[in-house]
């Protein structure tokens, strides 16, 4: 059941479960966190969990999609590049801002990474996270080129290897 389909009490319960999961995934990782841990931390009974999610993986998928659609993608739409590529304060602010976004959601990132190695569904989510980072780098290089800088660079080839060159599909069992 999506948050939009819920009443006020249902949204509060779902939110409490999601908040508890974010915190516990950051502290213990996905595999180190049980449904009982999550519902206990949320102050809810284990049975209530199943009104909102089919299992722990479904919860993680909902958290990851929410993170992508509510935080990551909109933040990229608001990125206004500076007039000068020499504006180091701007770039420091942008990098710090994105670091803080990811740091606040580190539990989701860790859990997705843990499952991406074996499940295509989470490998796809991890690739979306990476693609966002790559798109920001490409936009920055193109903007610099529009201003006469970095003419020798291929924007698609300047993203850090950690964003573009890691494994993108799960290992076979």
Your description of this structure?
This protein is an all-alpha fold. The chain folds into two domains: 53 residues, Arc Repressor Mutant, subunit A (Orthogonal Bundle), CATH 1.10.10.60; 118 residues. Helix content is 68%, strand content 0%. Helix 6 packs across helix 7. The longest helix has 27 residues. It is elongated, with a radius of gyration of 19 Å. The two termini are 31 Å apart.
Low-confidence runs: 164-168
Please state the CA-atom Rg, rounded to the nearest Å: 19 Å
Characterize the overall form. Answer: elongated
Report the helical percentage. Answer: 55-70%
Largest sheet: none
Count of DSSP-assigned helices: 8
| Beta strand % | under 5%
Distance between the termini: 31 Å
How do the helices and strands follow one another from N- to C-terminus?
HHHHHHHH
Q: Helix/strand/pairing class, anyone?
A: mainly alpha
Mean pLDDT: 81
Number of structural units classed as domains? 2
The total strand number stands at 0
């Amino acid at each position: 059941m999506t948050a939009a389909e819920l009443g006020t009490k249902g949204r509060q319960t779902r939110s409490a479960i999601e908040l508890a999961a974010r915190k516990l995934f950051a502290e213990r990782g996905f595999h180190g966190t049980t449904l009982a841990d999550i519902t206990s931390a949320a102050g809810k009974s284990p049975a209530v969990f199943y009104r909102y999610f089919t299992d722990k993986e479904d919860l993680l998928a909902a958290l990851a999609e929410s993170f992508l659609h509510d935080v990551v993608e909109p933040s990229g739409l608001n990125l206004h590049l500076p007039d000068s590529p020499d504006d180091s304060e701007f770039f420091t602010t942008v990098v710090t801002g994105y670091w803080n976004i990811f740091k606040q959601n580190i539990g989701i990132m860790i859990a997705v990474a843990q499952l991406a190695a074996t499940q295509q569904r989470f490998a796809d989510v991890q690739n979306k996270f990476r693609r966002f980072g790559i798109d920001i780098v490409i936009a920055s290089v193109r903007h610099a080129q529009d201003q006469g800088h970095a003419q020798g660079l291929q924007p698609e080839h300047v993203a850090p290897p950690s964003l573009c060159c890691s494994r993108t599909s799960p290992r076979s069992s």
